[in-house]
């Protein structure tokens, strides 16, 4: 239900493809509060990525509406402005431009903000330092490991201090060691920044690290529950 703390909401949202032959999402009501940490959980093909695309304005609902701080957002221009200033996205596939250095890839997120080149470089350096890659500023993506490329992508997503951070299966292309590091990094950044985090995963163990779990099944919300985190040392405690 909408409240003064609601950052973004989907209300009666349905997304159809192929002239209605494919129902990706159906009758979704989802209200996400400021500072919340939510796991979107579900099997492959359940509608998780479609949900992320709607939350970021990359896609638009067939029916229903998406609201940002209570205001309906419908135009591509309005969504583009939100992605520049308020919404950071971490994708599974990194999405780095191969001909640009790590620092330059991060600077791309600051174009359109009226910042000088020196300011962009300085902010990119700070963002890389926050993800532990201060020494990789001038490296091209091919010279970075998979874990390092994803850390660059995370730095790009946080450089504008977004209110909402969307992480769509961010460990899907990483080995277990790098995956664990990336998950810890994202959660640490969310804690220190106070941003709202929506973490999309098919891994129930990762989902249990979030305060709230929303389970998607066959395009609908099958479960939406708060998670009780027990004190450290308790057998059922989670990180």
What is the structure about, briefly put?
The protein is an alpha/beta fold and 239 residues long.
What class, by secondary structure content?
Answer: alpha/beta
Tally of domains: 1
CATH architecture: 3-Layer(aba) Sandwich
CATH fold-level assignment: Rossmann fold
Order of helices and strands: EEEHEEHEHHHEHEHEE
Low-confidence stretches: 230-239
CATH class: Alpha Beta
Residue-averaged pLDDT = 91
Task: Explain what you see.
The structure is a single chain. The chain is α/β, with parallel strands linked by helices and 239 residues long. It has one domain (35-57, 74-226): Rossmann fold. The chain has seven helices and ten strands. The protein has helices at 48-56, 76-85, 102-108, 117-130, 146-158, 176-193, 204-207, and strands at 6-17, 22-33, 37-41, 63-68, 71-72, 87-90, 164-168, 196-201, 212-217, 220-226. The strands form two sheets. The chain has a six-stranded mixed sheet, with helices on both faces. Strands 2-1-4-5 form a four-stranded antiparallel sheet, with helices on one face. The chain is globular and about 45 Å long.
């Amino acid at each position: 239900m909408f409240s003064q703390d609601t950052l973004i909401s989907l209300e009666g949202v349905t997304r159809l493809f192929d002239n209605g032959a494919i129902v990706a999402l159906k009758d979704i009501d989802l209200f996400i509060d400021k500072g919340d940490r939510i796991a979107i959980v579900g099997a492959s093909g359940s509608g998780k990525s479609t949900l992320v695309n709607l939350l970021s304005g990359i896609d638009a609902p067939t029916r229903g509406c998406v609201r940002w701080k209570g205001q309906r957002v419908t135009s591509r221009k309005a969504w583009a402005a939100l992605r520049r200033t308020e919404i950071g996205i971490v994708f599974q596939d990194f999405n780095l431009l191969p001909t640009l250095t790590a620092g330059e890839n991060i600077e791309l997120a600051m174009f359109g903000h009226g910042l000088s080149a020196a300011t962009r470089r300085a902010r990119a350096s700070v963002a890389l330092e926050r993800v532990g890659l201060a020494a990789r500023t001038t490296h091209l993506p091919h010279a970075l490991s998979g874990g390092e490329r994803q850390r660059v992508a995370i730095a790009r997503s946080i450089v504008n201090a977004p209110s909402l951070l969307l992480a769509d299966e961010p460990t899907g292309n990483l080995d277990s060691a790098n995956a664990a590091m990336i998950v810890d990094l994202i959660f640490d950044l969310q804690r220190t920044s106070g941003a709202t985090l929506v973490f999309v995963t098919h891994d129930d163990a990762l989902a249990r690290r979030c305060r709230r779990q929303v389970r998607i099944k066959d395009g609908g919300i099958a479960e939406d529950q708060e998670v009780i985190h027990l004190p450290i040392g308790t057998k059922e405690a989670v990180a």
